[in-house]
């Protein structure tokens, strides 16, 4: 084994090194980062900046969970998610990038693409949804397209979430047995198991053509979802020139005015939803008492 092969092995081992983060440390840091994202939002709005963040990577790599943590406390009027379905018949006749352009941010907006135009270099290529000629055309046009976005002042950040095959399989299994998450398992997801190496080759080829100085790829090791979220959000914040902008006016709650004699109608004339919560509490107390008696 030569030095290059040894270095590659070490790099891959480092990339998949999982640090078990204690819950308290994780929750404290994710809360701090979300506070910084709030500052980023104010900066974007005040400076009329435009931010585009691409989330790409393996199925079940943790992209969705990271997006949720980023947008959890942000205004949907400022930060919105673009998760496009498969193209319509009309969109299939358009220039490939056309339908994505419609979702780019205006001044004072952040757009998070949950998968993006890189579908062409990944799933479409591997599954045969496009021709080899269309893939090659994409590889030539994509760097130019992204150069145009950056030249126009858009902050473009591209993240590739990497997950090992064993961890991906475990996550698929957990989805299979969870009725709340079974919708996340599509035939395309299942194909990614048997086509693991095909997707790897497609990703390597994509990186060669689209990892550019003006729009570089940033890899996120995501065998640990908590680790991936903290690392990705921290990197995003450090990569943008935002700063804290104090509100022009401090918000104060007004005092309630004196009553003018208004009397609320009886609740009996309104249709309230059944008090399911109280029923649960009552049943729980009954079960608890029964357990005590049985003892």
Write the layout of secondary structure elements.
Layout: H1 3-15, H2 23-47, E1 50-57, H3 63-71, E2 79-82, H4 89-92, H5 98-101, E3 109-114, H6 123-126, H7 132-151, E4 155-162, H8 165-176, H9 187-194, H10 196-210, E5 217-221, H11 225-239, H12 276-294
Parallel strand pairs: 1-3, 1-4, 2-3, 4-5
Helix pairs in contact: 2-11, 3-11
> Assembly type of the shown chains?
single chain
Number of strands: 5
The total of helices stands at 12
Q: Quick one: biggest sheet?
A: 5 strands, parallel
Q: Kindly report the average pLDDT value.
A: 90
Rg computed from alpha carbons, rounded to a whole number of angstroms: 25 Å
Written as H for each helix and E for each strand, in order along the chain, the element string is: HHEHEHHEHHEHHHEHH
Give me the side-by-side strand order of the main sheet.
Answer: 2-3-1-4-5
Distance between the termini: 67 Å
Per DSSP, what share of the residues sits in E-state strands of 2 or more residues? 5-15%
- Contiguous runs where pLDDT drops below 50 for at least 5 residues: 1-13
Q: What structural class do you assign from the helix and strand content?
A: alpha/beta
What share of the residues lie within helices? 40-55%
- What overall form do the CA principal axes indicate? globular
């Amino acid at each position: 084994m030569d030095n290059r092969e040894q270095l590659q092995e070490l790099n891959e081992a480092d990339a998949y090194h999982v640090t078990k983060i204690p819950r308290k440390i994780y929750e404290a840091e994710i809360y701090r980062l979300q506070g910084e994202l709030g500052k980023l939002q104010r900066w974007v709005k005040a400076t009329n900046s435009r931010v585009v963040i691409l989330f790409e990577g393996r199925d079940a790599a943790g992209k969705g969970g990271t997006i949720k943590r980023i947008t959890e406390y942000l205004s949907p009027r400022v930060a919105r998610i673009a998760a496009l379905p498969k193209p319509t018949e009309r969109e299939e006749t358009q220039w490939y990038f056309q339908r994505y352009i419609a979702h780019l941010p205006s001044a004072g907006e952040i757009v998070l693409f949950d998968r993006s135009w890189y579908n062409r270099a990944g799933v479409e290529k591997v599954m045969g949804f496009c021709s080899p000629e269309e893939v090659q055309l994409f590889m030539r046009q994509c760097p130019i397209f992204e150069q145009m976005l950056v030249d126009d002042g858009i902050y473009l950040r591209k993240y590739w979430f990497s997950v090992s095959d064993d961890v991906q399989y475990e996550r698929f299994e957990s989805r299979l047995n969870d009725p709340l998450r079974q919708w996340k398992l599509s035939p395309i997801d299942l194909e990614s198991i048997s086509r693991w190496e095909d997707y790897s080759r497609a990703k390597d080829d994509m990186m060669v053509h689209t990892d550019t100085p003006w729009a570089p790829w940033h890899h996120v090791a995501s065998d640990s979802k908590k680790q991936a979220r903290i690392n990705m959000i921290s990197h995003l914040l450090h990569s943008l020139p935002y700063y804290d902008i104090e509100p022009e006016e401090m918000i104060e709650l007004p005092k309630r005015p004196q009553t003018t004699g208004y009397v609320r109608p009886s609740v009996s004339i309104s249709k309230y939803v059944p008090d399911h919560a109280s029923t649960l509490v009552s049943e729980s107390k009954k079960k608890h008492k029964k357990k005590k008696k049985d003892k």
